[in-house]
Specification:
Elements: H1 2-30, H2 41-57, H3 60-68, E1 73-74, H4 77-84, H5 96-115, H6 128-149, E2 152-153, E3 168-169, H7 171-191, H8 209-226, H9 234-247, E4 256-258, H10 268-276, E5 279-280, H11 283-291, H12 297-300, E6 301-302, E7 334-335, E8 345-348, H13 350-363, H14 367-394, H15 411-421, H16 427-441, H17 449-461, H18 474-477, H19 486-489, H20 493-499
Antiparallel strand pairs: 1-5, 2-3, 4-8, 6-7
């Protein structure tokens, strides 16, 4: 009996060892050996910056915004539908890719923030500088999310299988969280020192944390202006915006400019137009520039096959915004911005900041100071237009200008324009023209139509019509927000209920523009 007992125990021990071995083997089989399970924060930051610039700032969201604000005319397929309001805006599939990319960016930014906390494991633990960078990127993507979609999954989002159907947070609460995140970013960037150690992995600033800090201040100024309709003390907010602007970019070398473009890595506006030809020159934009005898229009008008056009050319074919017209390609004139292969994408430009400050000053009645900001902004805006034209010509996809009116734009042109258009104005007339000039400056290849869309909607909330849009469909179908993505309208009942039949995009402004969600 004793011998049998010993044999049984031995067999049991062997069985346990075999089970243990089997589990180890199965763990090895189930492990993904072909993909890294963890990477240093710097690699994640590189991807974050790239995806934020190309897919969010300069991607589909901006493309549709360009049509909504009449920077561009949509002439074919989806953009023709968006132009004529026949579809797109109220469908859950239209912005689904961008919707998913924003959440992916937010999740990855949170991963960097987690990896750089004090007490975390790994080489990035306690790196406040990189944490501050990730917090700025997280705030930027989160702001785009709620600015366009309003209430959205936020505090319960990005948690994987832990919460599969996150609830929607109110836009008001998201904005409160955004401001707190930016304050944390500012503190971390200040604590982290001048250099993050990211170096070449930082496609915006090369590891210069002092510039990320300035971007954080500028981004906070922008977001405060978004919420001005909801401010109980507007003058106090305007003064805060001025203070933040003074702490932000001192000159264009500090702006949040993404430019990793070349003959094989294309600016997203160029990539879209070159491959599809869905844009045409907007009649509305043409009218605004011609009314002001804006010399920039003599540099940017082209016809589809590459020939430079003058504003009075008989070959000029403009897109009649929202009116009945033929949805055809390679017929309508277009702007040089569409062919600016290597033009920069701006997460925030120096001239946007100056226009923000100018608006705040003008609303406080400080006209002389406001004009000084506008002068700086116009000089940089004209320079940026010329840089985009040069990028278009260098791409080889446009013919070289062949008339006297196409000479390069200079600082003198910007100054003459300022003296003629801005200097004589004061009061509400000055404020109105500041908004128009910001609208014109942010028309281009740099991904700034999205922020113009925000400007238009907050002015609507304030009862201001400084920038007159001409699409007659706007009377009933101006897109007041973007529609939620199909990935969540089909799987998350919370988002599905908020989406309904999609028609809310034409009737319900977001919270900061006067709506309830």
């Amino acid at each position: 009996m004793k011998k049998l007992y010993t044999i049984v125990l031995s067999f049991a021990a062997l069985s346990l060892s075999l089970v243990s071995c089997s589990e180890d083997v199965m763990d090895a089989i189930n492990k993904d050996w072909n993909h890294a399970q963890d990477v240093d924060a710097k690699f994640i930051v590189t991807d974050l910056i790239t995806r934020t610039a190309i897919s969010i700032t300069g991607g589909d969201l901006n493309t549709y915004a360009a049509v909504a604000v009449e920077h561009e005319g949509g002439v074919f397929n989806q953009l023709y539908n968006a132009e004529t309001r026949t579809s797109e805006w109220n469908t859950s599939t239209c912005f689904n890719n961008s919707w998913g990319t924003i959440y992916s960016n937010m999740k990855n930014a949170l991963k960097v923030i987690e990896k750089t906390q004090d007490g975390a494991e790994g080489p990035d633990a306690g790196n406040a500088a990189i944490r501050g960078v990730a917090e700025v990127i997280y705030a930027h993507n989160s702001a785009v999310l709620t600015d366009l979609f309003g209430d959205a999954p936020y505090s319960e989002a990005c948690k994987g299988i832990e919460i599969m159907t996150p609830a929607l947070d109110s836009q008001q609460s998201i904005y409160q969280s955004l401001m707190a995140t930016l304050d944390k970013a500012i503190a971390d960037l200040q604590a982290g020192g001048a250099n993050s150690g990211l170096g070449a992995f930082d496609y915006l600033y090369g590891g210069d944390n002092s510039k990320w800090l300035k971007f954080a201040y500028g981004l906070k100024a922008r977001l405060l202006m978004h919420t001005i309709f909801r401010a109980s003390d507007k003058d106090a907010v305007y003064n805060q915006i001025i203070q933040l602007a003074d702490q932000s970019f001192a000159d264009p070398s500090e702006q949040a400019e993404f430019n990793v473009y070349d003959s094989s890595n294309w600016n997203p506006t160029f990539d879209f137009q070159y491959s599809r030809d869905y844009f045409g020159f907007s009649q509305s934009m043409y009218n605004k520039m011609m009314t002001r005898d804006d010399k920039r229009i003599t540099r940017i008008l082209f016809e589809p096959y590459g020939y430079h056009l003058t504003p009075d050319s008989e070959d000029l074919i403009l897109v009649p915004n929202g009116e009945d017209f033929a949805p055809v390609q390679w017929v309508y004139s277009f702007d040089a911005y569409c062919m600016a292969m290597t033009a920069s994408t701006y997460l925030m430009s120096f001239y946007e900041l100056q226009f923000l400050k100018a608006e705040a000053l003008a609303r406080l009645g400080r006209d002389a100071e406001a004009k000084a900001c506008v002068k700086l902004a116009l000089e940089q805006a004209f320079e940026n237009t010329e840089a985009s034209v040069q990028a278009a010509l260098a791409s080889g996809n446009l013919g070289m200008p062949d008339d006297d009116e196409s000479t390069p734009l200079t600082a003198d042109d910007a100054d003459e324009y300022y003296e003629r258009i801005i200097e004589p104005l004061s009061g509400n007339a000055l404020l109105a023209e500041i908004m128009v000039q910001k609208y014109l400056a942010m028309y281009g290849a740099n991904g700034e139509s999205l922020e113009t869309y925000n400007d238009i909607r907050r002015m609507m909330a304030l009862g201001e019509n400084f920038v007159e849009l001409e699409n007659p469909k706007n009377a009933s179908k101006f897109p007041l927000r973007y529609s939620y993505g199909a990935d969540d309208t089909t799987t998350n009942p919370n988002v599905q209920a908020a989406f309904g039949n999609g028609q809310y995009v034409f009737s319900e402004p977001v919270w900061w523009a006067g709506g309830s969600r």
